[in-house]
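ok so I'm stuck.
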Amino acid sequence: MNPSLGPTILPAPLPEAPGTYVLLLQLRERAPIHIGRLGLIIFQRGWYAYVGSAFGAGGLAARLGRHLQAKKKPHWHLDYLRALAEPRRIWLNTAITPLEHAWAAALAAGGARPIPGFGCSDCHCHSHLLYYRTAPRNLTGLGAGLKSYTLATPSERSDTAPVPPSGA
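replied:
not stuck anymore, here's the structure
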């Protein structure tokens, strides 16, 4: 586990509503990581966009709250990567229709490189994790209604006063 990964500061509370999200993670160094049943994957230094949905209890706040925790027992594929990668940004939509499959396909079609089998053991998608060499500023093809949250660690941000999320 990367000792530099500390708590993540949210600029504003996440909605407890159900919805679909993209969690952008930064991996600062190339790393071999054993991902559950997928086995060993060599992750390149760079940026990873994980597409998911939260339609259970607690909605987006509960699901993303778990993803933002650095130390936890791995349950999802993302938990293994999250132990070494830092969350940097969240895009979300509170539409009641699950959009994760369409979003994953749109990001792949937009030039991101899919990590085969990652995060999609319960569907027929090629991947729900996409790699970018450099940080994407905006995610195109995800439609209207996106909210964006830029994340920070305490060392990156001296004031912890909430900043409202931006519309995308």
